[in-house]
Amino acid sequence: MKNRVVRGRLILISLVLLFALPVIAAKVILSNNWYQSGVTNNGQLFDPVVSYKSLGLKNPLQSQSWQLGFVVPPKCDRFCSQQLHLLGQSHTALGKYQGRVTPVVYFTAESDASVKKGYPYQIIDVSNAFTNEVHESEYVIIDPLGQLVMRYPKVDTANKLMAQSKGLLADLKKLLKLSRVG
Per CATH, the architecture of 44-178 is what? Predict the structure, then answer.
């Protein structure tokens, strides 16, 4: 009889350890920062949340579409023209999601005005508060509610630009697939 009691207690302790050990191990791993979470996005998320409203701007495409935008620098050289061309190419590459996105160029008081005539994109004038968040020659994704979602920092070579464009396209497709807004 004593053998059965000892055996039953051992089974109970084993079962408790079997279920408690993974929870304890997870707690120790997470609290000691031994786990590095994976990141699947290529751009930089805005944290904390930034929106047109918080920047004192009015969203001209409110509740209409996502915005894939580019901030025009003071001097739009050949590399800038290539970035603007890739903006349009990225929009075209969206395929079935193309109707949900509007390609946009953002202009500050210092931006090169010659770009307004050369490209068929929606033009939005922005303030210095906007360019404090998204700098010149950077891409940005903005949702239909006017929240800035991701930014893509300025790059300096054509190879980096192509890689950035592919990453931007992948991120935007993922956002559109998961989003029911716009």
Answer: 3-Layer(aba) Sandwich (3.40)
